[in-house]
Design goal:
- GO terms for molecular function: calcium ion binding; DNA binding; guanyl-nucleotide exchange factor activity.
- Helices cover about 65% and strands about 0% of the residues.
- By secondary structure, it is an all-alpha fold.
- The protein has a two-stranded antiparallel ribbon with strand order 1-2.
- α2 (about 45-55) packs antiparallel against α5 (about 85-115).
- The protein is elongated, with a radius of gyration of 43 Å.
Length: about 475
Amino acid sequence: MYITILVSLVLLVINGIVCPPVKPGTKPKEGASVNDTNETGLAYDRYLNEIVNVLEDDPAFKKKLETSDLQYIKSGAISKDLDLVHLGIRKKLDEIKRREVIRLKSLVQEQFKYKSEERNGRKVALHHVNLDNPHSFEKEDLAKLIKQATHDLDELDRERKEDFKQYEMKKEHEIKQKLANLNETQRNIEVQHIKEMKEKHKQHPKIHHPGSKAQLEEVWEEVDRLNGENFNPKTFFKLHDVNGDGVLEPSEVEALFTREIEKMYDPNNPEDDMKEAKEEINRMREHVFKEADTDDNHLLDEKEFERLTQREEFGKDEGWKGLDEDDEIYSEEEMQQYEKMLREEEERLKKQQIYDNLAQPGQVVQPVDPNVVHMQQPHQEQQQQQQQHQEQQNLQYAHQENLRQQQLAAAQHQQQFAQQQAALHQQQQQQPVGHQQQPVGHQQQQQPVVQQHQQQQPVVQQQQHQPVVQQHQ
């Protein structure tokens, strides 16, 4: 029991961070990756877990934990009792610290080399270890580790909530943007579709109040497959204390709400946002710990759980107000500030694009005064006019070239026709006189066609060519 209490107390209030239950007897292998241990989200997660796991093996230190109150541990005062730890354990702690110092030095050197932050976007964390003494793990190291982990985990929880708020505001902004780019008919259709999706999301079975009798009994019946009339809080507690350490950890409490989340969110439904589902289960867990975790250690022991089931409110099922009904995710003022920030960012990108367009190879673009940009506009307009004039001249040239090709084709056609007539005339001269009458008549019928073609062709050419010459002049 105290092994998990120790882990949870040193990690201190993993609020909003879902960690798998600690399995008794499992320890991270030396040199194992962070993923092989309990992930807290901290940059020094591996160091933290290795220290905790080694301290678990010392009977004297464990006994001291059994007699210490929560505040004594959270304040870091328990570090004074590090002298109780066996020499062999101390040597292991020293080695763990030396590896951590080497890791930190490597990160700092890399940061200095590239003059940037660590790859994950955070500055290199240094406050969890005493760098003045890089060789051995002392009381100050344990105190620093506990205090820094407490601060950092709380900060991670705040970041989670802020990230979700930003996510929701971004969704709202994108909807507004999409509607603004539609015509009235399309906008009405889209607004109706959004309304239908919201209504469809609300159509689900009743959500029980987290931690209420009705909610726990539903888990008892549908998950544990037991008779609802035989619901027993003590039996229920033991069934869901998965690792048998005598407490319900955050992940074990969250598992109790899986059924409720499944009622509200289905990954196959377009109207259900699974990112909201994750936040929903965090809110349920926080609510239950707020009601039942009387010693504020973010663990529910058997006594705390029993007191929860004995409260008058336990028998009342007030339901649950989901995220889609919560108006407190962000305020109107926060939304306005968010949209203002987006507009400023958009304006900055536009100006940056102007600078990039003005840049020449080998030149460094200096910040441009808006007045200078305004003064450059007449020059840009003149360039546009010159470009338009050049395009008109190109069109005129193409038109003239087309007429020339037509004239050339007509001349070739006339030449071919003349050759055919000459050949026909020669053939008629070689035939008897009686046989020449019909071809002569035929020639007379065709002759006007030749004359008409010869007379009309220059006129057409002149009419087509004349406007181009005038326009060119």
